[in-house]
Amino acid sequence: MLDAQGTAAAPLVQVSNLKMYFPIYTGLLRRHTGDVKAVDDVSFTIRAGETLGLVGESGCGKSTVGRAILRLYEPTAGRVVIDGDDIPALAPEALRKKRPVMQMVFQDPQASLNPRMTVADIIGEPLDEHTNLTGQEKLARIYELMDQVGLNRAFANRYPFAFSGGQRQRIGIARALALNPRFIVCDEPIAALDVSIQAQVVNLLEDLQDRLGLTYLFISHDLSMVRHIADRVAVMYLGQIAEISPRDDLYANPLHPYAEALLSAVPEPDPNGAARQRIILKGDVPSPANPPKGCNFCTRCPKVMPVCREIEPKLAEAAPGRMVACHLINPIPSTG
Amino acid sequence: MTDTSAAPIKLEKPRSQWRDVWVQFRQHKGAMVALVLLCVMAAFVLIGPLIWRIDPNFIDPDPVKMIRLRNKGPSWDHPMGTDQIGRDILARMMFGGRISLAVATVAMLVAIFIGTTVGVLAGYFRRIDGLLMRLTDMFLALPLLPLLLVMMFLFRDAAAKVLGPSMGTFLLIVLAIGVTSWMHSARIVRGEVLALKEREYVLAARSIGTPARRIILRHILPNVLSPVLVAATLGIAAAIITESVLSFLGLGFPPDFPTWGRLLYDGVDAIRTYPERVVWPGIAISLTVLCVNYIGDGLRDALDPRIRGR
What we know:
The complex is a heterodimer of chains A (336) and B (310).
Chain A: E1 11-26, E2 31-47, E3 51-55, H1 62-69, E4 77-82, E5 85-86, H2 92-98, E6 102-105, H3 119-130, H4 135-148, H5 165-177, E7 183-187, H6 195-212, E8 215-219, H7 223-229, E9 232-237, E10 240-246, H8 247-252, H9 257-264, E11 316-319, E12 322-324
Helix pairs in contact in A: 3-4, 3-5, 4-5, 5-6
Chain B: H1 17-27, H2 29-46, H3 48-51, H4 63-69, H5 89-124, H6 126-141, H7 144-163, H8 165-179, H9 183-196, H10 200-208, H11 212-220, H12 225-248, H13 260-268, H14 276-303, H15 305-308
Helix pairs in contact in B: 1-14, 2-5, 2-14, 5-6, 5-8, 5-9, 5-12, 5-13, 5-14, 6-9, 7-8, 8-12, 9-12, 10-11, 12-13, 12-14, 13-14
Protein name (chain A): ABC transporter ATP-binding protein
Subcellular location (chain A): Cell inner membrane
GO biological process, one term (chain A): peptide transport
């Protein structure tokens, strides 16, 4: 496993100040009266061959980050540099040419496969779009991909309904691998699977990473699974990143109060183990259409200070390789 | 076969799904019966006149004979009887069927084509959604019968001049019916497309870099097929009836030109004394509609891989 400091690999993905606002139109004239700030000023980098875990509660904008990076949504602002190209600025045809580098594995394997296409057609679709293989070569590549993800070649003519959830997810992974991508966004790829299958799929993803040198953005709300697969972990809250840390540091000693609360909720496998102090947050997540003035977490933070309600904390380095957005960790230089 | 050595099971080449569709279609008894019946009807109207060689518009020039031949019941000379001026009804049914079936099929195709195109474009491209749906609402709000009448009235002579009287009328009727009956399928298709385009497999296709036109053809259209088929089968029935309404109002085909709808209306006058004159075209129309409905049902099942598998 890579450690944050130990490697000098160049960043493959560089996201800076990414914003994704969904406009709200109200009234008879459909006037633009506000925005749902699903992703608000998010920056991070992912080095080649690394896995960045992206965790956070439902509705905090994890999936939106993944989709905006691949420009499945048009980001409101910000730069996303993947392998040297600024994705939001690419022209449509250039973006199409760029697509093979970055792919996505979707959350719901049932919904992400067209029910009227056979497995061979589904896996072959990227090949149809981006290569000029003959029928024979295409078939050979499809079989190769099915081998890679552990699907029996005899299934090529079947339709998605005939598969279990885990097998469907393998089809989705094979489709994402078809064009030899370097970067794959895994959008909660295991959330819809049952536990025994989750392990299989995660092991498959790790195995593929080792063999093909893939870089993952692994979006999940399953903290134990992220601990297993990720090298570094970013914790999101209400559209912003609260903390980015190397995995081991984060799980051993979370700095941001939200990360601390989140990690205290991970179920303990050993019931006789040391009873942990669970931090139970009060209240609800504020609306992303109208976030609090200062820190987004100030309404629920157990360690809230007056400054938190006034000034928005910026993501800053708190320890080597660890970035935290919290006044408690990074006090602002007193200006009076 | 490629690389069969690795797998113990013999690998099948990805095969065309149309064979599977046909295999499944044959499982649907109702659809097969309907298909056979529809073929029989098509043979009846297409090949029938070559065997039963009586001119459908033949009126005996001798007035005495003509009067004797009027309103005959079924006999060997005239298996379906004769009408009020002594024309053979069997021959009229055959010729009428040609027109009715042709009008119904082509008008339905026109309506479905326009409806699906408008529906898919409106559903998929948000920018033109408002415009296209307001257009649809406008067509729905128009009083159709007066519109049809005005269209026929204005363009009939012009079309007849260019394409000849029967072809011109045919084309005009087909277009008129098609252009005034696409709105419901457009609405149904738009609703389906709106739901489908948010599905993850469409998102997956976009992340692959599939252009919009191929997303529509590959992912959207096959999945809106069932509502389109239902709309199409209902459209055939509506087209036959609309054509007969137009003929009845004197703005469709010329009055001596038999169509099933026309025969039905002519027969209504004498329904108490000669009910069979209403029954023959009535049966023909209902049977066509029923057959098309069953075939559509079977086709929908056959095209759905979830049903096809078992």
